[in-house]
Each structure stands twice: as structure tokens, then as C-alpha cells.
Input
Amino acid sequence: MDSYDAMERYMTIARYLSLFALLAQLVLLGLQLAAYRRHRHASFLVLSLASIIGLAYGAVIGLPYFTASAMPHVLSLITVGGVIGIAATLLGITGTVLLFRAYRGLVEDNARVKARLALLEAQQAGPPLPATVPGSSLHP
Output
């Protein structure tokens, strides 16, 4: 295999990987938007914005694999793409932190509710019955 064939294979693989990454990002965006519509939680909105910017990042970075460009143009795309990618990453981290905080709050609320229910059930049950009845054959 000569270097031209190797480069063609590389470009073909890169194109398919770029398309796969964009498709995966679209799926994530769909899930995030559906979650935002249902729950109206800020974390899903921030994650959706991160995915939209991530799509822009993928388009900018993947462009050289689909068009013939001079090296200065490619370097400009990589620079712009890098800035877009950093923004998407920071928003993704922020959205994830918000989501984890919300989940922690739900878990803590659930623990408090369970403890309160256990207390209420114990109060409704009345005093506990003795384990043995004094004077019976089971009493030590």
C-alpha cells in the first residue's frame, strides 16, 4: 500500500468517525431536550446548549475531512474548533454538576421522607408488644 492509499483510507475512516460522533451528539441532544421539556431543570438546558455547541465543534473540526483545504485554512479551522470545543466542554461539565447536585438533593429528600414515614408508622402501631409474657412458659 502506498502513501496515497494509506491517506485515502485514513480520510475515509475519519469521515465515518466524524459522522458517527455527530450522530451520537444528535441523539444526546434529543435525550437532553426531552428531559428538559419533561422536568424543566436547568441542568438539561445547559447540557442541551453544550450539545448544540458540540455539534458546531464537530462540524468545524470535521470539515477538513470532507473538503480540500489549504493548510492555513485547516489550521484556522482547528483553532476556531478548539475554542468551540472548550466552550462545549465547560458547558457540559457545568450541566453535569448541576444534574448531580439535583440528584443528590432528591436522594437526601427521599431519605428524610423515608425516616419520617418510618416514625409515623411506628407511632401509629402503638407501643411495642413484649417479646415474652411474664408468667408464661416462654418467660425465662
